[in-house]
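Thread: quick sanity check before group meeting

JM: Hey all, I'm pulling together slides for Thursday and realized we never actually wrote out the predicted structure for the chain we discussed last week. Dropping the sequence here so it's in one place. If anyone has concerns about the input, flag it before I start.
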Amino acid sequence: MDVRRHITAGRLSEMFGETQVETDEFVRTLGWRRIAEEEVGLLSPPTRDALQAYADGVNAYLEDRSPTQASLEYAALAVSARDYEIEQWTPADSVAWLKAMAWDLRANVEDETARAVLEPEVPGRLSELYPPYPFEDHAPILSGGAVVDGRWQPEGVIPGVSPTEMNRRSQGPRAARQAAPPVLPQLLDEARTGAERLDAWLGAFGPGVGSNSFVATGSRTASGGALLANDPHLAPSLPGIWYQMNLQCDVTNEACPFDVGGFTFAGVPGVIIGHNDHIAWGFTNNGADVSDLAYEALNGDRYVRDGRLEPLDVHTEVIEVAGGDPVEVTIRATSWGPILSDVDDLQQQMIDNSFDITSLPGQANDVAVALQWTALTPTTTADAILALNRATNFEEFRAAAVLFEVPSQNMLYADTEGHIGYQMPGKVPVRSGANDGSFPVNGWDSSNAWQGYIPFSQLPWVYDPPEQFIVTANQAVVENYPRVLTTDWGYGYRSQRLIDLIEQSPPLTPESAADLLMDNRNEFAPEFIAELFDLQDELLTDETIRARAMLEDWDYQQDVDSAPAAYYNAVWRHVLAETYEDELTGDLRPDGGERWFAVMSKLFNNDFGEWWDNRDTSEEYELRDQVLSRAMNAATEELSDELGDDPSQWRWGDLHQLELTHPTLGTSGIAPLEALFNRGPYETAGGEGIVNATGWLPYEGYGVDWVPSMRMVVDLSNVDASRWVQLTGQSGHVFNPHYTDQVEAWASGETYSWEFTPDAVAASAVDTLQLHPD
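JM (edit): ok, ran it. Output follows.
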């Protein structure tokens, strides 16, 4: 909790010294702490009271404890911050962590940046790297619905507007975007490095971000009641991101309204995902485009807007540094938002001699990159959490969703009466001009600015759909929509797999629903493997031919013990490298997720093409089969060296492993500390674009960097039959037996019983702790 609040306040340097100054500069530029303090003042009195009561409890615990009595980590911290004292906890400390979670789910900032960097590098071919969503193969969350008379109607179409025209509108005016000055892709790349420093603390933003969830009515469950399942995908951390909690009043009434259980964040009151005695709810990321990058034309301390020079918003802050001198940082912002390129020491961007000054407005002599993001204004999301905890029906659930402004999510609903539903909440910008959110825009033209937000009444929702189930796994929300929600959905491989499984499944139980979340089938594998078997044997080594034979009867399940899965993923890794690494560098290289399934699916149809040709080789022009065979041979050689010469003994779990690393001491370079605080490796099944979404970056190896951070199944017919598990354990203390006691169960797909009613809790209790106020 203490580290998290230092992250969100831009004060890590106070704990860890000068190595964190640049991280602090980035967070100070975003202004999370200032916004959180403003947000507290906007919240309802009951929410403020809860935040203050939570803070009072934390401070009572800290009152008579030294830092080292509170946590062992402070003993190691004394090396860099000798006189460190733990400050009093405040409501703003709790609210600020919600900003960090919003940053973790910030949608398409990386894609927007990547497109701007790539467009001049691969002229005319960018669309091949960002194919459209495959609606014909992968169903969106909602099968129908439209905005009629200013409100979303779950069924029907807009009168007089064809589906083709609606789809065109939803895609946005991409062809009309404005060209960027030549140097700006470089500036964007530099601005992105500030985000990467922060991500080192919060968990690298990756392709698996989002999650799985589904709800089903009694017609599809064994109990006859509704059922809800959810597993949020986040970066692994130790201690874990979640804390399991039942928050229940002895007697539920207006003065004490809570009878709720689920998962919360340490430092935040209330349950984030879970159920109460009437309803259950879950979240997945919907990918809504809630941020834009803008090129700003500067002249000294002013910026250009519609031909006029406006004053920059400029202020300075001081970063205290453990063991060093304070650092003063200047923070600049325009009406668009904070200038990100400043935090990477790009105060003098015009040093780059290749910049074409004539591409800027006449008054300008400098350029910068600014960020507009919905989380950079105060929101009411903290109100939404406690409102969800108290909601008793779909109307109250939607009333809570109105308050859930940042980040925009998919919210699923089920209740004890057997009903299910879906709501998309959040502040989603209404864009204009040439701005469709897919590329950075010229900030000096106000026609690109946001024109407010889509009204909540127009955001998609559904209640008791005819299918009797709903799946959300980051796929498109709806095919036809009159405004731009995003151009960067997930591509629907996971969601369609879940849809198929539910449609084919016997009536669901909590246990079988949990099993669905552990499905390891690679939906792209059949198509990819067919290409591999089309290769002529003379292009392959004898060892490769033997290894390829394992794929012929494979069930496409990426289980821990699977030899075909090990070989398949090694080939996939080398195919991506052989195809793209001569043209895409750094973190623009293929991450191997669902988008790359769609990219390669189309590329396989072309034997020729510039992507297949490797510019770094002496051959005049490579063809598809040359690239694929070379990748297969390289994969065979790699696994033979790594796992032995017998392909049948290769195991996916020997490659695909999870290391749980402590955020502050786990990479200290001090071996005894790392051995004490870190855990692993753990063998894991699953992979990229798979329901059991254990993500990995092909250009870095096979190690897991994105995980289902918990798994939860709620049986609304009998809440005591519900199941749950989290990634690590309930304790953040290294010597506590609950530090990592759930990891093995998580890795194997096991879940634990989740007692909720008082009698069930009492019957299952092992230890009981009661706190009595003075």
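AS: nice. The longest strand covers residues 291-299. Confidence is low (pLDDT under 50) at residues 156-177, 345-354.
JM: adding both to the slides.
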